[in-house]
Amino acid sequence: MNQVFRQSDPRADAVAGLQLIDAEADSQPPLQPPELRSRAARIVLGASLVLIAFSLRFLFSSLSVLLPEVMQATGLSTTGASLLTTLPVLCLGLFAPFAPRLAQRYGAERTLLGALALLVLGTGLRWFESVPLLFVATFLAGGAIAIGNVLLPGLVKRDFADKAAVMTGLYTMALCASSAAASGFTLPIEHLVTGSWSGALAAWAVPTLIVLLIWTPQALGSRRQVSHRGFRVVGLWRDRLAWQVTLFMGLQSALAYCIFGWLAPILRERGFDGATAGAIVSLSVMAQVITCLAVPSIAVRLKDQRGINVVLVGIAVVGLLGILFAPVSTVLFWAVLQGIGQGGLIAAAMTLIVLRSPDSHVAAHLSGMAQGVGYVLAAFGPLLVGLIRGWTGSFSESAFLFVALGLGAAIMGFGAGRALHVGARTVRADGQG
Questions:
Q1: How far apart are CA 386 and CA 362, in angstroms?
Q2: Which of 389, 341, 372 lies closest to 85, judged by CA?
Q3: pLDDT reading at 4 higher than 60
Q4: How many helices (H) and strands (E) does the chain have?
């Protein structure tokens, strides 16, 4: 019988902050203590990884805030705008499977360096007021973000295993701060600095370029060698529980990217000016930090995660409905509530990958499955919101979509929350024990 390789209890790992999945798990030796570095070198490395995380969400929120201006200036239809907001989410799913292969061949540090360079190029190309080029730029930047999404958590886990809880918190906050910064500052950049929507979108290449320059000597100076260990995971794609985890990831991500893509236009349709709408979106995204940090430690201590998954879905959907229909004077409350629910869902989905996996190899493959399939599914969320807006002339009817997505996420979250392991197992590639 093929040997199944098991490691420590996933619950304990998640409590310790090791819910970060290593994309190189099938290619690296068993986890070793962090490399001996000077304190200053570790601080620089840790700060660099947090800054890279901070650069991975500008693309989504910056476009959302300026979408009405982009449509008016370019003549882009509602359908075209829907495709533009959907494209980067689709890239997250399409490009995620390539990240581990690139990391195994070139090393995670150099692959991440290439992704940053591509992200700078894609973001900078938005300077040109051309609709075709805007789509090309979004495609390039979306692919780069997909690679960063997969590789960065593994680097955090690998190099800061002794500080995983702290680094997990900083990494999570950096992602949320990235979205919040783009939501809150894009319009001021347009009005006070660039004078154009295209310049404001392209301006986010500047902080990413700075991060690229900081990361370059560290990536090129890395001497870490990767050696293939010959592991493979069998039975994952036929497992019902694995599909429930994947669909939970996809459906909650669909809700999240509806927010990233369309919350600012929804608020502007309700009568808020662009700057105020951006500030509200920024506050909602920052509210996600609360439950992003709290939910993993709560979830792993529960008997199972069915209840918390369903409750978080309910909070996120109720918040969205409040934003759509509640009195305008209360929108700030509903936006914060939605952020609390959405942040918890993101954290719960990532934590489930570890809790439902018998070992780190299965966790890495389940993460790839959940991100690859889940983000492709999530891309339909913002696309459908835009199409509904084009068909009906209002965002109000999007409520039916939000409820449907929430219902599906609740059902999948209830199934994925059971205290079981997926029926996949890790075996040696040569079939020997």
A1: 37
A2: 389
A3: no
A4: 17, 2
- DSSP 8-state class, residue 77: -
Please indicate, yes or no, whether the overall pTM of this predicted structure exceeds 0.90. no
d(CA 203, CA 322): 33
Paired tokens of 383: 């696309």
Question: Does residue 68 belong to any structural domain of this protein?
Answer: yes
**Three-state DSSP class for residue 208:** helix
Does residue 31 fall inside a structural domain? no
Alpha-helical runs (H) found in 125-239: 131-159, 164-189, 197-202, 205-220
Query: The domain that contains 120 carries what CATH number?
Result: 1.20.1250.20
Looking at residue 68, its amino acid is P
Q: What is the count of structural domains for the chain? A: 1
> DSSP letter at 382?
H
Mean pLDDT of the chain: 84
Residues 381 and 255: beta-carbon distance below 8 Å: yes
Q: What is the pLDDT of residues 115-140, one digit of tens each?
A: 999 999 999 999 998 899 999 999 99
Q: Please return the burial class of 142, using the count of CB atoms within 10 Å of its CB with bins 0-12, 13-18 and 19+.
A: buried
- pLDDT at residue number 261: 85
Residue 44, pLDDT score: 87
Range of the domain at 195: 10-18+36-428
Q: Is residue 30 part of a domain?
A: no
Q: What is the pLDDT of residues 98-120, one digit of tens each?
A: 887 788 788 889 999 999 999 99
